[in-house]
Specification:
Elements: E1 6-7, E2 11-18, E3 28-35, E4 38-46, H1 51-66, H2 72-82, E5 89-97, E6 102-108, E7 111-116, E8 126-128, E9 131-132, E10 146-149, E11 155-160, H3 177-188, E12 195-202
Parallel strand pairs: 6-9
Antiparallel strand pairs: 1-2, 2-12, 3-4, 4-5, 5-6, 6-10, 7-8, 7-11, 11-12
Helix pairs in contact: 1-2
Length: 210
């Protein structure tokens, strides 16, 4: 069933996902949590696939959903301690502040994050999230979040390693988001792993948000 496009505080977003071939349970999961001044976004890849991978990723989702702490590094550490008795997860985590048009993000493990600029003359046209090797719940690396400014129309994507790189490039950013997400999954998805990509378009507070 096609996903419906969602709107959350200046953000339009969609999901495209597929489980490991022959399975119905995916170890990949996501969260979009509305906050007073923005949105917390996570894409999580449980190690392996199947029920145990899903258990790990859903536990991380629960930590992110209920935590009052909104610092990205602190959230990753909270997830790490909550997942010590699981297989662990890889995770991309972003915090969007729609009052300042800034997005902070951090990645641990084999996850991907890209920002694609709507303005074709913007340099660089694409920004890539800095990721650190490791596994949340097993081996936590030294963490460092980075920050980037978003402009209305900019598109970002967070994806698990069930999608093979390169994920981005010169995508048609005026295309409906669900079409973009479905095409990324179709072109880059692997049937030997769970796969999930979240694609978002920043609307800001101007005309795009109406």
């Amino acid at each position: 069933m096609p996903w419906r496009s969602h709107r959350t505080q200046g953000l339009e977003w969609v999901i495209a996902e597929a489980p490991f071939k022959g399975e119905t349970t995916s170890g990949d999961s996501y969260l979009v949590r509305e906050l007073p001044d923005g949105v917390l976004i996570a894409v999580i890849d449980g190690v392996g696939h199947g029920a145990e991978a899903a258990r790990a990723s859903q536990r991380a989702i629960e930590v992110l959903r209920t935590s009052e702490e909104l610092d990205l590094i602190a959230l990753v550490r909270r997830c790490h301690h909550a997942l010590l008795d699981t297989r662990g997860v890889a995770m991309s985590l972003a915090l969007l502040n729609d009052a300042t048009d800034m997005m902070s993000w951090v990645g641990v493990g084999n996850v991907a994050g890209h920002v694609l600029r709507f303005d074709a003359s913007a340099m660089p046209h694409r920004e890539v999230m800095l990721t650190r090797g490791g596994t949340i719940g097993l081996r936590l690396p030294m963490l460092m979040a980075s920050t980037t400014e978003l402009n209305p129309g900019d598109v970002f994507l967070l994806a698990t390693d069930g999608l093979q790189p390169p994920l981005a490039g010169r995508l048609p950013l005026d295309t409906p988001l669900q079409t973009l997400a479905d095409e990324l999954l179709k072109k880059h998805g692997r049937d030997t792993d769970d796969a999930l990509v979240l694609v978002g378009r920043y609307l800001g507070t101007g005309e795009l948000a109406t």
